[in-house]
Design brief:
This protein is an alpha/beta fold. Helix content is 43%, strand content 15%. The protein contains seven helices and six strands, in the order βαβααβααβαββα. Strands 1, 2, 3, 4, 5 and 6 form a six-stranded parallel β-sheet that branches. α1 links the parallel β1 and β2. α3 crosses α4. The longest helix has 21 residues. The N and C termini lie close together (9 Å). The relative contact order is 0.18. It binds flavin mononucleotide. Flavin mononucleotide (FMN) binds next to α1.
Length: 192
């Protein structure tokens, strides 16, 4: 059997992003578990705000096509999203909107979401850790017919959650992340 491949997508472009740091720790945990991990930055997939006229005129932008194919080359996906005003940032929603419009030959539109396991996590400086963004993201991915694992991680008070090596300071946070990673691996393997 080929190695399990999992794609990790942080939903923030900000330098020092709490979510990019959580994505890095998650990628490390996945690698420790023997997974072939790819961690990307959405800065490498810049997209205009979705506009049906733009799609009709110029088609889906190449960065959305490339990202869709990158997702398709992995068995599972972990999205680590910030929470903006109780929901996902425009960056995350817009990226999913464009990817959901990609239709490769001999494939139904949106098939890339159906065919693999998704996990979601968030980090925020607040007490709820981005729980409301996770609810919104779960809904969006479900609308795309993705299978999202029941477990999720909302890292609260995240500004204080990392040590000087950018590892999670609290054993409980590490355990929660490891449980998430294990569940993503299990489902990804079953969907291979
Ligand atoms: C426009 C905006 C809205 C925000 N709304 C929330 C919110 O609803 N809940 C929350 O916990 N944090 C909120 N925050 C704070 C973010 O969680 C915080 O800036 C976080 O560091 C962003 O993620 P990042 O560090 O990965 O870039 C908001 C920040 C911005 C810029």
């Amino acid at each position: 059997m080929s190695a399990l491949k999992i794609l990790v997508i942080p939903g923030s472009l900000r330098s020092g992003s709490l979510n990019a740091r959580l994505a890095a720790v998650a990628a490390h945990e996945l690698a420790q578990a023997g997974v072939d991990v790819t961690r990307i930055s959405l800065a490498d997939f810049p997209l205009p705000i979705y506009d049906g006229d733009l799609q009709a005129k110029s088609g889906v932008p190449k960065h959305a096509v490339n990202l869709k194919r990158m997702i398709g080359a992995h068995h599972g996906v972990l999205i680590v999203t910030p929470e903006y005003n109780s929901s996902v940032p425009a960056l995350v929603k817009n990226t999913i909107d464009w990817v959901s419009r990609v239709q490769d030959p001999h494939e139904a539109r949106g098939e890339v979401f159906r065919g693999r396991a998704f996990a979601i996590a968030s980090a925020s400086g607040g007490r709820l850790g981005g729980t409301r963004a996770l609810a919104a993201l779960r809904l969006i991915l479900s609308a795309c017919h993705a299978t999202v694992i029941p477990n999720q991680l909302a890292l609260s008070f995240a500004e204080d959650a990392y040590d000087e090596m950018d590892r999670l300071r609290l054993p409980a946070d590490t355990e929660a992340l490891q449980a998430l990673v294990r569940q993503l691996i299990d489902l990804s393997q079953r969907m291979m």
